[in-house]
Amino acid sequence: MTKYSLQVYLHSIKEEMLNVNELEVHPEIIEKLSELGIVEVIDGCIGPESLYRVRKMIRLKNSFSLNWQGAAIILDLLEQIEKLQEEIEQFRKR
Question: The whole model's pTM is what?
Answer without folding.
Answer: 0.70
